[in-house]
């Protein structure tokens, strides 16, 4: 007879296993649409303008699914100089599915 005592979501071996699975989040800061000839002329140190301003929100994706928006910020303390994202909006992915 199979043990079905922990079939509820968030319980049992499955949930413990899923807690250990790493995921990759992509942060999108903007897009560029240069002409190919202009892109081929860019040298090292060249600047490629994006469609967003420095203080505009960034978007966080898992795969191609938007999961949140946030603001770029610099980490302080021991990791000074590293960038991070402060979340400002979590996208409701459950009701939109």
UniProtKB/TrEMBL annotation:
The keyword Membrane applies. Keywords: Cell membrane, Cell projection, Chemotaxis, Cilium, Flagellar rotation, Flagellum, Membrane. It is a peripheral membrane protein. Residues 18-92 form the Flagellar motor switch protein FliN-like C-terminal domain. The keyword Lipid biosynthesis does not apply. InterPro entries: FliN-like_C, FliN/MopA/SpaO, FliN_T3SS_HrcQb, SpoA-like_sf. GO terms for biological process: bacterial-type flagellum-dependent cell motility; chemotaxis. One of its GO terms (molecular function) is cytoskeletal motor activity. GO terms for cellular component: bacterial-type flagellum basal body; plasma membrane. Pfam families: FliMN_C. It is found in: Cell membrane. It comes from the Bacteria. Belongs to the FliN/MopA/SpaO family. This is Flagellar motor switch protein FliN. It comes from Rhodovulum kholense. The lineage of its organism: Bacteria, Pseudomonadati, Pseudomonadota, Alphaproteobacteria, Rhodobacterales.
């Amino acid at each position: 007879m199979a043990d079905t005592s922990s079939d509820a979501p968030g319980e049992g071996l499955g949930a413990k296993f899923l807690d250990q699975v790493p995921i990759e989040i992509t942060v999108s800061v903007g897009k560029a649409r240069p002409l190919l000839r202009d892109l081929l002329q860019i040298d090292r140190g060249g600047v490629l303008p994006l469609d967003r301003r420095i203080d505009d929100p960034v978007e966080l994706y898992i795969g191609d699914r938007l999961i949140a928006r946030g603001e770029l910020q610099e980490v302080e303390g021991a990791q000074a100089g590293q960038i991070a994202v402060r979340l400002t909006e979590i996208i409701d992915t459950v009701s939109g599915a």
